[in-house]
Amino acid sequence: MNPRSFVAALAAIDLDSVFNPYIQRCESHDLADGPAVRRRNLRRYLRAVEAMETDTIWMGRDLGYRGGRRTGLALTDEYHLPHLGAAYPGADVAKATRGPAIAERTAAEIWSVILALEHPPLLWNVFPLHPHEINSEFTNRKFSARELARVSDLNQELIQWLGIRRIVCIGQDAAIYAASFRCDIECVRHPSYGGTTEFREGMKRIYGRNLRADASQRELF
After folding, report:
1. Contact of 178 with 59, CB cutoff 8 Å
2. Are strands 18-19 and 130-131 parallel, antiparallel or unpaired?
């Protein structure tokens, strides 16, 4: 497995009421080559993670319509794309949509911690595509068991390929799923729906002194 073959396999998945950002183009927001930009983003990101020998995944639930649907990157919105290359050297990514950069609250919380770490994790999701309500693309919903079955083998290959040893689960859906892998599992509250304080406390508990104490992080932690 390598970044190109992995992204190609991900792009081949076709499911109803699921937006696959690596092959589908959003008529409302995407540039003409939006899917190609997102495939390139993910390939470069995975190549950077591999070079860093990262052994940890932060695992969320699925791509959201304000974040990964647009960027092709888990737990990452367009507002934080300019920061990605600094945190993951070699990950030269680009915006795939028209108009101003869109921010997402969950991504803001995730990246406030990422930027405080010297050795950041791989950001990933249980379901690495964007599931939405029927005939309503700009909504978020939880993936079904049938949909999850289509990506589970790819998730397993990703973990084996990169030598992942630890999974930090962002929320209970990730915690339930990650229990099937032979990795060390730690969990924090998802920052959405009133979970911000517990998320921050959980990350401080896990990373503690590994967090850089700059001015912005003193405010956060």
Report:
1. yes
2. antiparallel
Q: What is the CATH number of the domain that holds 65?
A: 3.40.470.10
Residue 13, classified by CB atoms within 10 Å of its CB into exposed (0-12), middle (13-18) or buried (19+), is middle
Q: Tell me: the pLDDT tens digits for 90-122?
A: 999 999 999 999 999 999 999 999 999 999 999
Q: What percent of the chain is helix, strand and coil (3-state, nearest 5)?
A: 45, 15, 40
Token pair 């803001």 is at which residue? 108
Q: Across the beta sheet with 122-127, what order do the strands follow?
A: 122-127, 56-62, 166-170, 184-188
Q: For the beta carbon of residue 214, count every other beta carbon within 10 angstroms.
A: 11
- DSSP E strands: which ranges in the chain? 18-19, 56-62, 122-127, 130-131, 166-170, 184-188
Contact, 146 vs 38, CB < 8 A? no
Structure tokens at 170: 């962002």
Q: Which domain holds residue 75?
A: 3-220
